[in-house]
Specification:
This protein is mostly helical. It has a single domain, classed as Up-down Bundle (Ferritin), CATH 1.20.1260. The protein contains seven helices and no strands. Helix 1 runs antiparallel to helix 2, helix 1 runs antiparallel to helix 3 and helix 4 packs across helix 5. The longest helix has 31 residues. The termini are far apart. The C terminus is likely disordered. It catalyses: 4 Fe(2+) + O2 + 6 H2O = 4 iron(III) oxide-hydroxide + 12 H(+). Its EC number is 1.16.3.2. Keywords: Cytoplasm, Iron, Iron storage, Metal-binding, Oxidoreductase. This is Ferritin.
């Protein structure tokens, strides 16, 4: 059975996840208005992910015999100055979710509610991935917003399209072979041939 404190915090997280879903869905509408269709689809997908996060919490609370509760959520912003300002807002939202998840985990541990503690580990891992993803996208948006950055991004895209593939086994053998003094490196072979000629 959940304690009163944990129940309040879990229900608070339910509402926060619902709010995040609403924010991202509204962001997708603004992005569509700017003809940023792919980014709009990205945020639409994340709106659905946040709703899924909310439902996981909602179901867990009810499974414990308590009652899940979704409070009223604020109306999301409908307009943004730039794509970067939108991405900054999204990053702040993910940071806010992470902060509350961490508080929940700490509360569960303090109360020795190991079932809830274990349940929340999925959210800890998920927030780590989400923060990394959103901060990476914000960083790329800032790079592309400069003339030099656009050139760098174009080059990076050309590398992707070049068909360069590193076989999975390359990484598996890399550590084992890196200390082999008899290992031949293509660059060394080229260097030897050059001097022989």
């Amino acid at each position: 059975m959940l304690s009163t404190t944990l129940l309040e915090k879990l229900n608070r997280q339910v509402t926060l996840e619902a709010e995040a879903s609403s924010i991202y869905l509204q962001m997708s509408a603004w992005l569509l208005s700017q003809s940023l269709d792919n980014t709009a689809r990205f945020f639409r997908h994340h709106a659905e992910e946040e709703r899924h996060h909310m439902l996981r919490l909602f179901d867990y609370i009810n499974e414990t015999g308590a009652t899940a509760h979704i409070a009223a959520i604020p109306e999301p912003d409908t307009d943004y100055d730039t794509l970067i300002s939108l991405m900054e807002c999204a990053c702040r939202e993910e940071e806010r979710l992470t902060t509350h998840i961490n508080e929940l985990v700490n509360a569960a541990l303090e109360e020795k509610d190991f079932s809830t503690f274990q349940f929340l580990q999925w959210y800890v891992a998920e927030q780590h991935e989400e923060e990394h993803l959103f901060s990476s996208l914000l960083h790329k948006a800032r790079i592309i917003n400069t003339l030099d950055g656009r050139a760098l991004f174009r080059f990076d895209e050309e590398v992707r399209k070049s068909g360069l593939h590193i076989p999975r086994h390359h990484h598996e053998h890399e550590g084992r072979d890196s200390h082999d003094p008899h290992r031949h490196h293509p660059c060394n072979e080229h260097h030897t041939e050059h001097h022989a000629s």
